[in-house]
Amino acid sequence: MKIVKAELLMVDLKPKVKRTDAMQSFESQETPILKLTTESGEVGVGYTYTIGTGGSSIIALLKDHLLPKLIGRDSSMIQEIWQSLLVSTHATSVGAITSLSLAAIDTALWDLKCKRLNQPLYKVAGGAKSKLRLYTTEGGWLHLSTEELVRDALDVKSKGFCGSKIKIGSPNMNRDIERLEAVRKAVGDDYVIMTDCNQALKLSDAKQRASLLEHTVLSWIEEPFLAHDVSSHKQLAESTTIPVAVGESIYSIQHFKEYLENQAASIIQVDVARIGGITPWLKVAHMAECFNTLVCPHFLMELHISLCCAIENSKWLEYIPQLDTITLDKVKIEDGFAYPPQEPGLGIKWDWDMIYKETLVQHIIQ
C-alpha cells in the first residue's frame, strides 16, 4: 500500500456559459489533477480547482513540499497523512492554497481506499441515501435578464429540477426584487428559489433586501458578507426568516464550528476542495448534523453527489457541470434527481487522452 509515485497535471477548463455574480466574472477554471500509484500498481486519482487564479501556486506547493512527503507512506493511513501534511504547512494554514492542495491528495487517497474495498465512495463514506434532488445555478447569473431567468427556471422545472439559484447584489436593489418576484410568479410556490450575494453586501443593505424579499419565500440567502464576518451573518440570521447559507469561502473545520456555535448560518455549503478534501468534509458534515443543520455543498457536483449521499443531513445538490470536457460520462440525472456513481472509487471516469492533450503542467515525483 506504499505510495511510490505521484503524477501532477493541470488543465484549464473554460465554463460553457458566461458566469457573473456581484463580485466577479470567471472565465477560467484551473484544475490540478493528481495520480498516486502504490507499490502494487494501484492508482488513485484526486483533483482540486481554482476560479481563474492560483493554480500555479497550488502546483508549486504540491510539487515542492507536499508530494515528496507522500513517497513511501502507507496510502491507507488517510487521517494520519492529512494531519501530518497540515502540520507541515503550518506557516500557510489555514488558507486557500494549502486547503486546495491538501484536497488533491486527500481525494486521491479516498479513491485508492474505495477501489481497494471495491465499493463506491458514497457507500464507504456512510451510505445514507441513493439519490438527491438537484437545483441549478447555470441559469441564474447576474448579467441575465429577468426574461432569461424566468425562461431557464421554467425549463429546468419541466425537467424535474427542484429549484434555481439566482445571483443578487445588483447596485439597484429594485432590480434584484423585480427579478426574483418574476421568477416566483412564473414557477409557483412548489419550486425552491435560492439567492447568492457572493459576499457583496453590507449589513444594513442585507437586512433591507431580506425584509423586502421574505414574501418571495426563499430557501436561503447565500454569502451576504465576507466569510470571516461571523457577527454580521449572525445579526442577519436573527433579523430575517430567510435561512442564511455560508461555506464556499471557508477553509477550516474550526471556522465552520464558529458559525454553528453562534447560530450564524442554518445552511452549510462546505466545498470538498476548499475545506481540504473528503476527510475534513465529512467532519464538517457530521458536525453540522449535531447542530441539526443542513449541508448543501458548493460546486463540484461530480464529487459532491457521492458525499451528499453518504450523509443524512443533505437536501439539495448544486447543478453546475464542471468536468464534462475531461470525463467520459456525466453525473446520472433522471427526473431532477442526481445519482451517485456505483463504480469503485470516486466514480469519475477520466478522459486521459483529453487530459494529456489539454495539460498545461506536468510533474512526476517518485
Automatic annotation (TrEMBL):
Residues 146-243 form the Mandelate racemase/muconate lactonizing enzyme C-terminal domain. Keywords: Magnesium, Metal-binding. Its cofactor is Mg(2+). InterPro entries: Enolase-like_C_sf (IPR036849), Enolase-like_N (IPR029017), Enolase_C-like (IPR029065), Mandel_Rmase/mucon_lact_enz_CS (IPR018110), Mandelate_racemase_C (IPR013342), Mandelate_racemase_N_dom (IPR013341), RHMD-like (IPR046945). One of its GO terms (biological process) is carbohydrate catabolic process. SUPFAM superfamilies: Enolase C-terminal domain-like, Enolase N-terminal domain-like. One of its GO terms (molecular function) is hydro-lyase activity. This is Mandelate racemase/muconate lactonizing enzyme family protein.
